[in-house]
Amino acid sequence: MFSQHICSSNGCNERAVWGADTCLAHVRDIEQYTENVKEFLAQNTSFSGIHISNITLSDLDLSGKKYSYCSFSHSSFSNCNFNNCSMYLSFFDSCRIKQCNFADSSFRWTVFAGSLIHDCRFGDSSVLRSNFNGIEMKNTIFNGSDLYSTRFIDSRLDNVGFENCNLLRVHYEFGELDDVSFRNSNAEEAFFDKERIEE
Question: For residue 40, what is the enclosing H or E element?
């Protein structure tokens, strides 16, 4: 898993971020650190165990890359291209994600719980056993995707497309769905019943 090193700042119990011995709040020059992160992400194609939280990233081409056991919790992404990426057991929880492209990608056990996701594309992707619980999602499409056993429990979905998708064992319980399309998908095999939440 990602690094468990604790921030070296006196009295701080937060985890240290990648490339530093402190958490982001105690990095001396956040602008320079952000540039270092951008360069690191741009120059490499595979990442494992990195912890980069609370950072703001925009206008990055991160397509075709592989992420395993990575944490980007509480970060902001704007106009970033994750097209054709592979993500395994990685964390984008409590993030703000706007105008990003995740199409043609593979997600397994990836966590977006508690995030705000607006104007994004996840189409033609494999999104297996992933967690979108408690999200606010708007103007986003998953069309043509396999979402087997993925969860959107207690989520607010507005103008979201799940057309021509595999929705077997997908959970939507306790959610608010407004203008959500399931056209040509097997919605009858998803869970909308509030009394039934299975493991």
Answer: helix 30-43
Is 90 exceeded by the pLDDT of residue 195? no
Q: Counting runs of H as helices and runs of E as strands, what totals does the chain give?
A: 1, 12
Q: What are the CA-CA distances from residue 91 to residues 17, 53, 95, 194, 197 (Å)? A: 14, 10, 9, 26, 23
Average pLDDT over residues 10-21: 93
Work out the average pLDDT over 8-26.
Answer: 93
Cβ atoms of residues 183 and 165 within 8 Å: no
Q: What sign does the dihedral 142-146-150-153 (CA atoms) show?
A: positive
- Please say whether the beta carbons of 52 and 27 come within 8 A: no
Where are the extended beta strands (E) located within 75-120?
A: 76-78, 86-88, 96-98, 106-108, 116-118
Task: Give the tens place of pLDDT for each residue, 82-99.
Answer: 999 999 999 999 999 999
